[in-house]
Amino acid sequence: MSDQFKGIEPMVYNSKINVPYSWWAGDTATRFFVSLRDGKKITATKCGSCGKVFLPPRKSCPSCFTENTEWVDVSDEGTLISFAVARRQFEAIPKNKKAPVIWGLVKLDGADTALLHYLDEVKPEELKIGMRVKAVFSESRKGTARDISPFKPMK
Ligand SMILES: [Zn+2]
Asked: What is the pLDDT of residues 42-60, one digit of tens each?
């Protein structure tokens, strides 16, 4: 690199990509979404060999390589395992949310794995790993992850 570019600020090039897509949910995710939509129930799959409970539900156990055929209901309350805070608005943030936006990994009671979702009704400085949170169900559920809309701290 020649000296004329030394210390120069890298440019930010603004552009936009709009990519519509469809996602085939399959049997496992479909059952999970229908339970959320129709029953406000959070369901997970359980491994018949090691007993691990997977949420989001998995069709097979990644440890035992067996098909998970058992379904269990898990609690709508759980523990915050990790979180991330977006302090600036950017394209990936839904239009109805304003920065700061918080994503949390939530391990619901009865599950062995964690679900990634939004957290609301909490300030970033109040977040603590291990805090108890509860799912809030959307009034107009459509069979998507947003039927939980979103998690909030338990008081
Ligand atoms: Zn297993």
From this structure: 999 999 999 999 999 999 9
C-alpha to C-alpha distances, 37 to 46, 92, 117, 147, nearest whole angstrom: 21, 24, 16, 7
Question: In terms of Cα–Cα distance, which of 108, 138, 144, 107 is closest to 120?
Answer: 138
**Gap from CA of 118 to ligand 1 centroid (Å):** 28
The encoded tokens of residue 73 equal: 């209901």
Measured in Å, residue 72 CA sits from the centre of ligand 1 at: 15
Using the mean position of ligand 1's atoms as its centre, give its distance from the Cα of residue 46 in Å.
8
Neighbours of 44 (CB within 10 A): 25
The pLDDT-based confidence of 5 (bands split at 50, 70, 90) is confident
Question: Which SS3 state, helix, strand or coil, does residue 83 take?
Answer: strand
Ligand 1 centroid distance, CA of 116 (Å): 21
**pTM of the entire predicted model:** 0.83
